Amino acid sequence: MYIKLQELFKLITKFLHLNKKISKYFIFLIVSLSFWFLTVMSKEYETTIFIPISYTDFPESKQLVNQLEKQIELKVKSYGFYLLSQNLFKTKPLIISINSLTETKTKNYSQKQWVVKRHYKKLYKLLSADIKILSTSPDTLFIRFQQKHSKKVAVIFRGNLHFNSQYRLKDKIRLFPDSIFIFGTKKTLSKINYIETDSVVFDEVEKAIKQDIDLSDIDGISFSKKQVQISFDVEKFTEKIITLTLSATNVPKGYKIKFYPPKVEIVTTVSFADYNKLDPSFFVAEANANNLEGKNKLEVKLSKKPNFANVVKIKPSRVEFLLIRQ
Length: 326
Known about the structure:
This protein has 326 residues and is an alpha+beta fold. It has helices spanning 2-18, 20-41, 80-88, 120-124, 186-189, and strands at residues 44-56, 62-64, 71-79, 94-97, 103-105, 110-115, 132-137, 140-147, 149-156, 159-163, 167-176, 179-184, 194-196, 200-205, 209-214, 222-223, 227-245, 247-249, 255-260, 263-271, 284-288, 297-304, 309-315, 318-325. It is elongated.
């Protein structure tokens, strides 16, 4: 390895020795370019510079109604060195405090303005030395407001709950607070009746949840709260089948009715805690015998069921019948 490096060094040395004229040419070229660069940079030029704007101290009780300028375009003149320096480094933003500006009122809005020519001193602090401002665009910055109005609206959860096997939601999803005040122009508020949370997905849920979630932003609207708390309980459930004798309603006078089959099965899901207390007395299965013409089957419905169990299926959901004259 050491021998190979020595050979490589000899080859490079030999190459440079045989090309002295080329080496001198490159040195001359570099010196010439340096003089040219110094000459160019020592001349005066006109160009355009963009100054970003950062607004602070917005009045809390008012709503912005116009689009604010994001930058000021400056037409400037200076020597090349200073212009190059200005372009090489990131320009600091112009910071404008809204509350410090004088306010004027019109019929539809109140207005504050920042006249650029009156603040050249502030602009010069953001520029490299010896840069002269020739003109600006825009020459005035306008900030327009309307008085904020408020409205109380409901908060709605937007998202999905995915439970692990044999787990489910107990009761309902709770949001605290379940309503908030929103602020904006009267016209904008009239179109809003509720606020949604950011879309949230809860996966593999098998225990109670309690956490803060953000509210979804709406352009031109501010909120009394930016977050609400979501909470819900979870329960483990199992399946239970209840067998019921089917009863009839609206049977024509002078007739009785027989069903085939006479009993139906109610497939339910119930929490483990409520499993033992669930029995047939909590259910009533009926078939409506009104208007039997042209029918050979009747639909089975539950006229009574408990709120602590979910009915998954009725088997069968339709039954044959026989109308018998008494």
